Amino acid sequence: MSELGHILTFPILIPLVVGAVLILINERYHRLKFAVNMLSTLSLLVVSIVLLLITEQHTEVTSQVVYLAANWQAPFGIVLVADRLSAIMLVLTAVVANGALLFSFSRWAQVGVHFHTLFQLLLMGIHGALLTGDIFNLFVFFEIMLAASYGLLLHGYNVVRVRAGLQYITINLIASVFFLIGIALIYAAAGSLNLADIAALVSTLDDSSRSLFHTGAAVLAVAFLTKSAMWPLGFWLPNAYTAAAPPVTALLVVLTKIGIYVVLRLYLLFFGDHAGASAGFGTGLLLYGGLLTMAYGIIGLIASQESNRIASYSAIVSSGTLLALIGMNNPAVLSSMLFYLISSTLAVAAFALLSELISRIYPTRNQVLAITFEAFEVDETHDVSSGYVIPAAMAFLGLSGMACALIIAGLPPLSGFVAKFAMLHQLLQAETITLAAWMFLILIISAGLGSIITFVRFGIRSFWASHRETPPLLKLTEVAPIIVILMVCVGLVVFAGPIFELLERTMSEASNTPMYIERVLGQPATGGNA
Amino acid sequence: MEFILAIAIGILFASGIWLILRPRSFQVIIGLMLLSYATNLFIFITGKLAIDKPAFTVTSDAVEMAQFTDPLPQALVLTAIVIGFATTALYLVVLLGSRGLTGTDHVDGKEREVTHE
């Protein structure tokens, strides 16, 4: 068990070490840097899949793998915990990261310095936030993730990015202040920072501590809801997504979903059925906040003309949907929620990558970019002729744009439809359908309609009315990641049965907080002379 | 003692919030720094104020816990200070970059258009 547990440190240590090594390699050897980074990111995919298989092997209810750093038994010391939920999120992150990295090979990795180092550190922060079992380490890993994302957002330094970066950093620094205050209040109330320990203590708090604990949780929620872009905390998102380089936007899509993951995880641990008087705290806020976010996202989506903005508002709609589903406090919808999370993350990330390729149909709009390329001596003409250029570029752009649109709008036959169908099925199965559930149904269907209108308009303008004689040059390394990500979405549909069974197991395990507490606090420190 | 500290934290927060709502990026960074000072003090006092109590012991004998102060908030504050320092430095660089590229220190990267009557 303890030997097996060491694998939990790999997703954090590999990017840390590789990120440090990459600093030492001069930017001139960008192919070498890329190769090292790609190797590391691929190995992280393998580690994530192995971790998922390990958590799947434990056929009994307890599938958590617990790693006690420095061999201190919880709640003392630092603890890493992986269960099916975090393992699935790790695999999702790894898929998007590999796609984004491969996409960045031909140009984006070269428009600035230290792209690969920041990329690895971002992955380290994400993985740490997914695996940690301790609320303060969650803060530390969040800061690592955010610091790397600040650097990546500014990657390919130009006026738009610096302006967006300044605002993005300000928002996130203020959110970090909220994060710290929340942690301090929770520590003052519960006297512990270990997630399992706090979860065990919630039901035993007296009234004054409980109100302090609730205040702390609410302040903490401000930080996570800012990251997951709940209305009215999500105004930063469209500017940041639009300004960032496309591979970075794809990673920011994952980052937003990490905010959702943390909300879900902390909600289940702190305010699940075991929490006594605190059970269900804040559900109304998540539910109605989520619904308002969806409404805001739909309006923004219909108003969007550019592909980047469409991707941003699609991400906001999907955040709103997920938050509203968490706020429904209905265990039956959680597995379809997770399916929707996976499918929408992949689709929006693929569309963010695709949108840059589509924008090449209009070469005159990329003037700012050309200046950046010049500054960093990216020899574009040489580069384009040297790489393998795919045939039928316009057909590829049209088809994959359509596939993204189908998934985001939730139309058959792709995975978005399965996700929305499962959600609606679960909600309509309930004996009494609440007003909030009706509002959710109306909004989710309007979201589909809004996406269709937006994407059809965008498709007509880009592909039918573009009047361009020569199609844009697309390289294999730019096309392959989009195809792979979309193929994963197709796989989600083909294997929907087994995947839903896995997600059912995942969510029933994640909702079983007493088992989580017992598993983490019961993990013995390894004996011997250690 | 608690009262004075509470007032001080309140004043720091109030000044910080006022400053981050100002339009100049320099005011915003000062505001952010005040906010992070206030937060650090806030975390520090969650371990309760105590005078002449060490945070840890060097003897291996059994100790009376009441003689010691809570070491954890101090460790948290230390981490928070380091992270706050790093992010503020980073913000400063972006601020200067923005000033250089846009030619203004307004947070939107452009001056508000003033209409003269």
Helix content of chain B: 55-70%
**What count of domains describes the coordinates of chain B?**
1
Largest interface: A-B, 29 and 30 residues
Q: What structural category do the secondary elements of chain B indicate?
A: mainly alpha
Question: In angstroms, what separates the terminal alpha carbons of chain A?
Answer: 16 Å
The coarse overall form of chain B would be: elongated
CATH class of chain B: Mainly Alpha
Q: Please tell me what the overall shape of chain A is.
A: globular
Major β-sheet profile of chain A: 2 strands, antiparallel
Q: Numbering strands along the chain, what is their spatial order in the largest sheet of chain A?
A: 1-2
Mean pLDDT of chain A: 85
Word description of this protein:
- The complex is a heterodimer of chains A (530) and B (117).
- By secondary structure, chain A is mainly α.
- Chain A has one domain.
- Chain A has 22 helices and 2 strands.
- In chain A, helix 2 runs antiparallel to helix 5 (115-131) and helix 11 packs parallel to helix 13.
- Chain A is globular.
- Chain B has 117 residues and is an all-alpha fold.
- Chain B has a single domain (2-56, 66-102), classed as Helix Hairpins.
- Helices cover 62% and strands 0% of the residues of chain B.
- Chain B is built from 3 helices and no strands.
- Chain B has helices at 2-20, 25-45, 71-102.
- The relative contact order of chain B is 0.13.
- The model of chain B has no long low-confidence stretch (mean pLDDT 85).
- At the A-B interface, helix 6 and helix 7 of A face helix 2 and helix 3 of B.
